[in-house]
Design a protein that fits this description.
The complex is a heterodimer. Chain A is mainly alpha-helical. Chain A contains eleven helices and four strands; from the N terminus they run αααβββαααααβααα. In chain B, α1 crosses α3 and α4 packs across α5 (106-145). The chains are: A mainly alpha, B mainly alpha.
């Protein structure tokens, strides 16, 4: 099929995205069990960051390769010929890439819209003076959650407030504040935006589930920060909320105090043992990550400015397009 | 209590055949699962009640014939090992029981479902009570330490 210059570029980008992302996705998926085991040996916050990075890696690396290499090599080295044909494999891969992106965009848009609607419904039940970053709902369900992406708000139902003592409320609020500080809802949105190769197979679910578990544990640790009394208050708040009944989350962009009671026993046991201190940023690790980022960025920039690398990529793209 | 089981390993018996275990057979299977493998003497030693060597020997032989155990002749004595895992056995037994209820009249189906819902609810409530008790104990422990 003959396509105009920029349509060919779009087609190539989508096809490259599909092929490279599929390879990365398969690699991460095949390592998922081992990765989760390794994460289990780390402290919760570090484990959740590690899993988040791996979950996002295939999409992030692929987008970087397309923006950094494919597009420049095409724009600089591809002559604007009207006669070049696009092969069926390329078209098929491009269509698959477009479908994967469409599903990712649809589900993330749906999540944002649903969350907005949920927040408006909650705020309609709240007296105006309390509506800044704290929403009390007179729902029949037990809710305590941080909802929203850019400016998340704490949503709590009156029945939960009534059931918890002041100490328990404070411990639970600290837990939710930890979710806000670590921008967990934004990460959830990025998960939705970072597409699966086969959107309905859900190959990344194992990583996401493990991430959610470690994120809860990390928020518990940060809420408690080594204080045994606070740990007991948080543990009893968890059990009280579980007794009120755990409801399914109305939207994906929401971090509940008790999202899933399957992990309740483990969380309570963790809190009753010597409670962990909030992880302080580890200077050597941060320095190492920054250095690694600089080295990778530098190598990528060198490759980008090196004409032969773009030439090599352009030849690969020529194979793909035919 | 006897339990029925559809043959899970199905090479020696027709697939529709069911295996019934008596209390002694269940106890012996428990010991074999715990040991992994053992001869009659090992099983006798690990039984909770005192039973004659020949009783255990007969029971093991019966379990072998029912297809639940494997045996190998070592030093003039049979060493028995389980042919099915405890998990497989429990799963089959539960499946058989459920299938029996679901094939029955509508009332027994409803009875089964309501029992399951009650059991899950009771289990959850018991777990939450247990967690509350743990928290209370820890709180008391801390208060005593102060």
């Amino acid at each position: 099929m003959i396509l105009p210059y920029y349509m060919r570029l779009l087609c190539l980008c989508l096809a490259t995205f599909f092929v490279v992302h599929a390879l990365g996705w398969l690699a991460v998926r095949s390592m998922a069990a081992a990765v989760v085991r390794i994460a289990g040996t780390m402290r919760p916050r570090m484990a959740s960051r590690f899993l988040f990075a791996l979950r996002m890696a295939p999409a992030a690396v692929t987008v970087f390769l397309i923006v950094g290499f494919c597009v420049p090599s095409y724009v600089w080295l591809e002559p604007d010929l009207a006669t070049e044909r696009v092969g069926w494999f390329c078209l098929l891969a491009a269509a698959s890439g477009a479908a994967v992106w469409a599903v990712a965009l649809l589900r993330s848009t749906a999540a944002v819209v649903l969350t907005g609607r949920y927040m408006r419904r909650c705020q309609a039940q709240t007296p105006r003076e309390r509506a800044d970053d704290f929403v009390v709902v007179k729902d029949s369900a037990a809710v305590m959650a941080m909802a929203g992406v850019m400016r998340p708000k704490l949503v709590v139902s009156q029945m939960v407030l009534d059931a918890l003592s002041i100490e328990q409320q404070q411990a639970a609020f600290r837990h939710e504040a930890a979710h806000r500080t670590s921008r967990d809802n934004l990460k959830r949105l990025l998960f939705l935006l970072s597409p699966d190769v086969a959107p309905f197979v859900g190959g990344s679910r194992r990583l996401e589930r493990a991430w959610a578990t470690f994120t809860e544990w990390a928020a518990d640790d940060e809420a408690v920060d080594g204080d045994q009394e606070r740990a007991l208050s948080l543990a009893s708040a968890l059990v009280r909320v579980a007794k009120l009944g755990v409801q399914g989350s109305p939207t994906h962009l929401l971090c509940s105090l008790m999202e899933d009671d399957r992990d309740l026993e483990t969380r309570v046991d963790r809190l009753l043992r010597a409670p962990a201190y909030a992880e302080k940023p580890m200077a050597p690790v941060v320095a190492f990550m920054r250095s690694a980022g600089l080295v990778i960025g530098g190598a990528a920039a060198t490759l980008l400015l090196w004409p032969q690398s773009l030439g090599g990529i352009h030849r690969l793209l020529e194979h793909l397009i035919q | 209590m006897n339990h029925a089981l559809r043959q899970p390993w199905g090479d020696e018996r027709p697939s529709s055949a069911r295996v019934f275990l008596g209390p002694l057979e269940e106890d012996v299977m428990d010991v074999v699962w715990r040991l992994g493998a053992g001869n009659v003497r090992d099983v006798v030693r690990h039984m909770e009640r005192n039973l004659a060597y020949t009783t255990i020997m007969t029971t093991l032989d019966r379990l072998y014939k029912k297809g639940l155990l494997d045996r190998e002749l070592t030093d003039r004595a049979f060493v028995y090992s389980a042919k099915v895992t405890r998990e497989e056995w429990d799963r089959r037994r539960a499946g058989e029981m459920m299938a029996g209820f679901l094939q029955g009249p509508e009332e027994s189906q409803h009875l089964l479902l309501s029992c399951l819902v009650d059991a899950v609810g009771t289990h959850d409530a018991m777990l939450l009570d247990e967690l509350e008790r743990k928290i209370r104990n820890k709180r008391e422990e801390l208060a005593r330490a102060k």
